[in-house]
From TrEMBL:
Coiled coil: none
Cofactor(s) needed for function: pantetheine 4'-phosphate
GO cellular component: cytoplasm
Gene Ontology terms: biological process: amino acid activation for nonribosomal peptide biosynthetic process; secondary metabolite biosynthetic process
Family matches, as PROSITE patterns: CARRIER
Annotated Carrier domain residues: 500-575
Taxon lineage: Bacteria, Bacillati, Actinomycetota, Actinomycetes, Streptosporangiales
Protein name: Amino acid adenylation domain-containing protein
Molecular-function GO terms, alphabetical: phosphopantetheine binding
Length: 825
């Protein structure tokens, strides 16, 4: 066996510890820092009793932390179990149980499911290591290399669940020899060098992310760069990112690779190699991008890289030591041209399926053609033949497995899950369309039960497996032998059951939806994904809106509320003519800018008097939301993403290098999301984030004051103490106050936090000693949202200490702003 992956990476560390290893936005992790952090986490795992070859879970989004996690587990002599943070919680827990995971590495900000996952795994007796919350413990451990790590060629390198397995999860155990051979292959066949800049685009829950992207790059000394999710899904933005970041190697599923290749490219661009796997690859006529396209054939069980494809029917010849055989049902080799089941041999085969000896024995067979004792071959389930040139030509599957947006989906298993949830009637599941949408046909099922069925399936099935449509039939068609005849099932017709859109802007948006979703009509409250949409169609929708309306919509914001009504609000906010930023005071050329975000029901008046107590060199700018003050005639916004979508571009259009964002209560959440919007859209983060009277964004909000009757809502506002009681009691002003108040409370109480990388800017939090709305322990959670330093100040008072402790608060703010101004001089 060639050297293990972690020893190759350690060698690269010795050669250049200061060289960049992983880059995500503005965050750069050098080889030295990557190695040191991985060593510290590995020692923590050892202290928790993690043994050699033990499966250790890792559930993190694509991030530097995910790289640290995987490398640390390998350095501890264990095997990372790659869990997809985008998978349903029940699926993750089932995999944790099936693998016997005792320790799981995750992060409260690097995993969207962390709030539900952490208590759930604790109930299973699993110890969770949180890379953010446990950072102080980790930082106190030795950072030098562990000397007693011993791995053999057959040691477990990682464990990953095959994407097609649902009813009987199959955990594939890859071997160190297999992975090391893939690293060597990347150098020999694909020319990986230390000068490469390799994009990490695959889900961290898939083995391909390790063996095709991370390990070949890091073991060679290259730099790994991580695009954000929105960039990855929009071909034009991905191309621009590739050019901007000088990416040389990228690995994409065909559904992402094909539209990227068909864009216009500069002849002297940095990209030299695009790798893709899976489905057949077809480019439009005349498409000839200025980089090499290598289409590889393989599977999790064969450590992914088996054959190098051209652009025709052939899948090419084997790469390295990976003999390919086409066999008949009795296991005999077939003559060239005859179709049989494809088998793959060689060193890159996985060890087998974890804790499934019978399944392993039936899939990993003795190789009688290798001429070596103990040689094995894997039965792929693909049908194929060897052509006259000695190359493999695929001819479908021996089972009902298909590829849906790059993921293997076993339709029989999806059918079994749908039937179990439906409870009664008959079910047939097929894949249709060029993008292989999964469609479920139901007979003898009440149509009113379909929404509940869809919600139940969404909990159990990964998105690629989830039926995009449900077609109700009186009975399923059958052949003369009584089997379901899937070939004559009627094409689905998508229709809407919700209200029609308004005839203005929403009508144009509904037209875009109908084109993309191939349906006759959509309703204003229809869910894009329940109508059959998926991530790639959502990206195309964003581009269509940009071309037709001239506005850029945040894809992440759309995912939070994927309805036509919410989308219309995002478009409206992005084109909002109102003056959302108002300059209150300060010099023409300020040293520091302070942008203040109001609390629920507040506006410009909340901070208008602050200028008198701030340093002279500070410019005070206030956010003026619609529905109050000079914008009283405008519709109040009910969604954080709507306000941020209109505000972010305005801040970006007038940047200041020393901008601080301050927000109280709801304003703190809006300020935080504005900082994240700036980062997502490649603008500088603020110099600092100042939050007041607000629990950390990851803290669930349980209040529902926005649903209260008018009198009860006003009484609630009066009890909080932030609004002049005479205004609340004035019957004439109620019609003017209530719309903005109710909208603001709805904005706060329906806010859905989405985990992401911590901000780089420092965060200072201010808490009230008697604040029942934002408890001190919840305010402390803001520290998990920054990698740039955190501090907290506690002031006397309740929720609106911002008023009762105004002078004290402004003195503390001024101190921080003065310190920033001193950096200029």
């Amino acid at each position: 066996m060639t050297s293990s992956v972690h020893s190759l990476i350690q060698e690269r560390v010795r050669r250049g510890p200061g060289e960049p290893a992983v880059v995500s936005g503005s965050a750069v992790l050098t080889y030295g820092r990557l190695n040191a952090r991985a060593n510290q986490v590995a020692r923590l795992l050892r202290s928790l009793g993690v043994a050699a070859d033990e499966p250790v879970g890792t559930c993190l989004s694509r991030s530097p932390d995910a790289v640290v996690s995987a490398l640390a587990i390998v350095k501890a002599g264990a095997a990372p179990v790659l869990l997809d943070p985008a998978a349903p919680l029940e699926r993750i827990l089932a995999q944790v149980r099936a693998c016997g995971v005792r320790v799981l590495i995750t992060s409260t900000v690097g995993c969207d499911l962390a709030a539900q996952l952490l208590p759930a795994v604790r109930e299973l007796g699993v110890r969770a290591v949180r890379l953010d919350a446990d950072r102080h413990i980790i930082a106190g451990l030795p950072a030098d290399d562990l000397e007693d790590v011993r791995v053999t060629p057959d040691s477990a390198a990682h464990v990953v669940y095959t994407s097609g397995s649902l009813t009987t999860p199959k955990a594939v155990v890859s071997r160190h020899e297999s992975v090391s051979d893939c690293v060597a292959l990347a150098r020999e066949e694909f020319g990986f060098t230390a000068d490469d800049r390799v994009a990490w685009c695959s889900s961290p829950g898939f083995g391909v992310s390790l063996v095709n992207e991370l390990w070949p790059a890091l073991a060679t000394g290259a730099t790994v760069l991580i695009p954000d999710a929105e960039t990855l899904l929009v071909p034009q933005r991905l191309r621009d990112w590739i050019l901007q970041e000088r990416i040389t190697v990228i690995h994409l599923v065909p559904t992402l690779a094909v539209p990227l290749c068909e864009l216009s490219w500069p002849a002297d661009g940095p990209l030299r190699l695009l790798l893709t796997t899976g489905e057949r690859f077809r480019l439009g006529a005349g498409t000839d991008p200025p980089f090499t396209i290598a289409i590889t054939y393989g599977s999790t069980e064969t450590t992914h890289i088996t054959g190098r494809l051209g652009r025709g029917e052939s899948v090419g010849r084997p790469l390295g030591d990976a003999p390919v055989y086409v066999l008949d049902e009795s296991g005999e080799r077939l003559p060239d041209g005859d179709v049989g089941v494809v088998h793959v041999g060689g060193r890159r085969l996985a060890r087998g399926y974890l804790a499934e000896p019978a399944l392993t024995a039936s899939s990993f067979l003795p190789d009688p053609f290798a001429g070596e004792p103990g040689a094995r071959m894997y039965r792929t389930g693909d049908l194929g033949s060897i052509d006259a040139g000695g190359e493999l030509v695929l001819a479908g599957r021996a089972d009902r497995q298909v590829k849906v947006r790059g993921q293997a989906v076993n339709l029989d298993e999806v059918e079994a899950v749908v039937a179990a949830e439906a409870g009664a009637g008959e079910v047939a599941v097929v894949a249709i369309g060029d993008d292989s949408r999964v469609v479920a046909y139901l007979a003898g099922v009440d149509g009113s039960a379909v929404p509940d069925l869809h919600r139940a399936l969404a909990v159990r099935l990964p998105r690629a497996h989830l039926p995009a449509e449900f077609v109700l039939l009186d009975r399923l068609p059958r052949t003369v032998t009584g089997k379901v005849d899937r070939t004559v099932l009627p094409a689905p017709r998508r229709t809407s059951s919700s209200s029609v859109p308004d005839p203005a802007g929403e009508d144009e948006l509904s037209g875009i939806w109908c084109e993309l979703l191939e349906c006759e009509s959509v309703g204003i409250d229809d869910d894009f994904f329940e109508l059959g949409g998926h991530s790639l169609l959502a990206a195309r929708m964003i581009l269509e809106i940009e071309e037709r309306r001239g506005v850029k919509i945040d894809l992440t914001a759309f995912y939070e509320r994927p309805t036509l009504r919410a989308l219309s609000g995002l478009v409206s906010a992005a084109t909002q003519p109102g003056n959302v930023l108002v300059r209150v005071s300060g010099p023409e050329r300020p040293l520091v800018r302070l942008v203040c975000f109001p609390f629920a029901g507040g506006g410009l008046s909340a901070y208008a008097s602050w200028g008198d107590l701030l340093p002279d060199h500070v410019e005070l700018v206030c956010v003026q939301p619609p529905g109050r003050g000079p914008r009283l005639d405008e519709r109040p916004l009910e969604w954080v993403a709507e306000l941020v979508g209109g505000l972010g571009p305005k801040l970006a259009a007038d940047p200041h290098p020393r901008t601080y964002l301050f927000g109280h209560s709801l304003g703190a959440i809006v300020a935080f999301e504005t900082a994240r919007w700036l980062r997502r859209n490649a603008h500088p983060e603020p110099a600092g984030l100042l939050v007041s009277g607000s629990a950390a964004p990851q803290t669930p909000v349980t209040a529902r004051a926005h649903l209260l009757p008018d009198d009860a809502l006003l009484a609630h506002v009066g009890a909080l103490g932030g609004t002049d009681q005479s205004l609340v009691d004035d019957e004439r002003l109620r019609p003017l106050l209530l719309p903005a108040l109710r909208a603001d409370f709805a904005m706060h109480e329906t806010y859905q936090y989405a985990a992401d990388e911590p901000l780089e800017c420092p965060i200072t939090a201010f808490a009230g000693s008697q604040d029942d709305e934002a408890l001190i322990e919840d305010v402390l959670g803001w520290g998990e949202q920054t990698a740039g330093g955190f501090q907290m100040q506690v002031l006397n008072g309740g929720h609106f200490f911002i008023a009762s402790q105004r002078e004290r608060l402004l003195w503390l703010l001024s101190e921080e702003l003065e310190a920033e101004a001193e950096k200029v001089s």
